[in-house]
């Protein structure tokens, strides 16, 4: 770990706990800062805050008192989920206090080079793919960031022989200053999190911060299937490595069912271990990183052909009597479900869809639903999803919840069919998050296996 001195005897406020807040507080304390942690959860119900207090770190819980900012903090490190219109954040900025997220701390202390992956869809899968390919190629990759392992914790343990493979959200990137990955990947850019950013332009600007400090010694990998990527390519000092499934580019591309890098055939697209056109895009970005990092083609092929996916993201969930199950609970929007369906023969798919009603119709999804064997529909948005199914000419069945939907889908399925949970909706009408929703699907499959 780089022993940075800039925080010694410096007052720092950590706003919001969870994994990243705790990691930031402990790292800052280790670096000699005078740390105060402020979290909204009451102290009696907050084991993390209790643990920090036992470690000698000051904690203030249960509310966010604005007068706390009268204490002359030199820095505020916030949980990325806390918005910039939060009163504490607004007041800090008004007072000229820098507001960071903990990935900035990770960059400052990391001895290891960083590969940063961001985008609207596919970043978790791509991050995991890259780590697995690099490890297959003996490059000692360490996963961290938005994928569940706080970057500032992992960075402390990493050496110059390691590589940090870091998933980054727009929220995290907004809180960076000097952050500079050696390689940046932007999987795609779609209108999402507009409620947080205010506009698509502001969202793109937040994502584009990933390359702000990069130089000609660094590389940014862009998906040229999108026009916006081509427009961004001219706005960076970094070397641009394009990827495309639609044309031959001076980078990674798909041609006649084969994946290439700069004219060199790497592997067949059909050998990728997870289905879907989006996973071809993810694999191309991974190949671009791997080739730049000196991984040989055999290692790339071995890692990508055995890649089993990420839990809740087109996760192969087993087979019963010739019926295959896929858990794509993380598909919380229309685009994600469109990409999931692209990997299957619709005539053999029973799709489980529906969830939180956000007031939007599903007309964009209609062309992708055409030809489905059947749909099982659930949740608040069921009436809207049914309208889309009617327009697509697809029959459907109602379900009470995911467990009920899974059982009904299996009853309707025949040997050779696929039951796909890809809701196109958030989970919050029934479940705390998409993970809990997906776990219900997985649990029900195990129950069905026991009953066969």
From TrEMBL:
Coiled coil: none annotated. GO terms for biological process: cell division; cell wall organization; peptidoglycan biosynthetic process; regulation of cell shape. The keyword Cell inner membrane does not apply. It is found in: Cytoplasm. Signal peptide: none annotated. GO terms for molecular function: ATP binding; UDP-N-acetylmuramoylalanine-D-glutamate ligase activity. Its EC number is 6.3.2.9. ATP binds at residues 119-125. It catalyses: UDP-N-acetyl-alpha-D-muramoyl-L-alanine + D-glutamate + ATP = UDP-N-acetyl-alpha-D-muramoyl-L-alanyl-D-glutamate + ADP + phosphate + H(+). Residues 312-424 form the Mur ligase C-terminal domain. Keywords: ATP-binding, Cell cycle, Cell division, Cell shape, Cell wall biogenesis/degradation, Cytoplasm, Ligase, Nucleotide-binding, Peptidoglycan synthesis. GO terms for cellular component: cytoplasm. Pathway: Cell wall biogenesis; peptidoglycan biosynthesis. Belongs to the MurCDEF family. Cell wall formation. Catalyzes the addition of glutamate to the nucleotide precursor UDP-N-acetylmuramoyl-L-alanine (UMA). This is UDP-N-acetylmuramoylalanine--D-glutamate ligase. It comes from Streptococcus cuniculi.
